[in-house]
Structures are given as structure tokens and as C-alpha cells.
Write a structure and sequence with these properties.
Blueprint: H1 26-29, E1 36-38, E2 45-51, H2 56-64, H3 66-74, E3 79-85, H4 91-104, H5 109-118, H6 120-126, H7 129-139, H8 144-151, H9 154-169, E4 178-181, E5 184-187, H10 192-206
Parallel strand pairs: 2-3
Antiparallel strand pairs: 1-3, 2-4, 4-5
Helix pairs in contact: 2-5, 4-5, 4-7
Amino acid sequence: MRRSQLSFIVIAAFAFALAACDRFGAKTGAVTADDMSLGAASAKVTVIEYASASCPHCARFNNEVFPAFKAQFIDTGKVHYVFREFLTPPTEVAAAGFLMARCAGKDKYFSVLDAIYRGQEAMYQSGDFRGALLKIAESAGMSEPQFTACISDDKSIQALNSRVETYEKRDHITGTPTFMVNGKVLDGEQSLASLSSAVSAAQAAAK
């Protein structure tokens, strides 16, 4: 899914009128406090995924490929997986999803994101974005007032936009999903086989 222009996202207190260097150098690859990650930081292979919570391709990867990838590479300590948030249309939905996942806490971030991806198709069919996201927030232990405050927090919105601008300018990300496997760029949705091949090559090069 290609992203249109990055504009400052205004998320209103919710009428869900949400008005809303090199490709892999030290800066690109270094994991910061802003990144969400899984697996051993000491792993020889780092896989960075740039994805959007509103991207159907990202949802399909999450639902159909990621569970097996996680079991085979992340849970076994072979890969350090880093997730970086990007915004694709509808950007207000992606932004609200990411803000909500962060508000739920780092320990719940990936489970909330998984729930968003698995409910994405139904959410698009119903058009009730706020209702669908609120239900996920409540399942993660948030109240409706907490949810509303979370997705309308100016500082968090500005921080999200700043991260996305960095990924655009520094890492040259233009669409989602995009993967980097120890610096090798894989554009678009990937199969388990294609990722396995890239990880194997990175492991061999790292020896």
C-alpha cells in the first residue's frame, strides 16, 4: 500500500472525525526507545519491518506469515525483530491504532496490534473505525475515557509524525510493508520462504 503525502494528523477527541544516509547504517539499524521489538537483541540478524496499521498487505503478513516467522526465528533467538510504525491511508485509522497500542503498554503492544490487523477487514466493511478500535482498547484494559485521551494526545501525535518523517527521509521508506534484513531491503509483502532465504543469507554473511 502506497502512502500519500505525510500531513500533520489531527485526531479530535473523537467523533472519529479524526481530521486527522544509507538505507541501513548505524542510525537506521540501531534500536531506540521508540522502537517496538521482539527477540534477542544479541541476535546476529536484525529484521526491521516498516508497516502501517491500516495496510491490508501488512495485515495479511501479520495474520498468515508472521506467526510462523516468529516461531522459527524470533522465539529461537535467531532474529531480533524491530517494528517501525508508518502511516498509510486512512492515516487517521493507522495513527489511532498505533497510539492505542502504545498506550496499552510495551507488554501489550504486539497483542493489540495483532488484534487490529485481525479485525481490520471487518472494520473496513462496517466503517465503524472508532467502535472497532474502542473494543480492542477495552480488551486491553483501557476505559473509553482513557482511549479517547490516548488517541487525542498532541505530544504523542507529534512524536508519531516525527518518527514517520524520519523513516521517510533517513530510511527512504515510501510504502508498506518494507523489510530490512541486516540491511538488505525487501519491498512489499513477503512470504515465509523469502524471509527465510534473506535471514539465511544474513546469518552466513555474519559468520
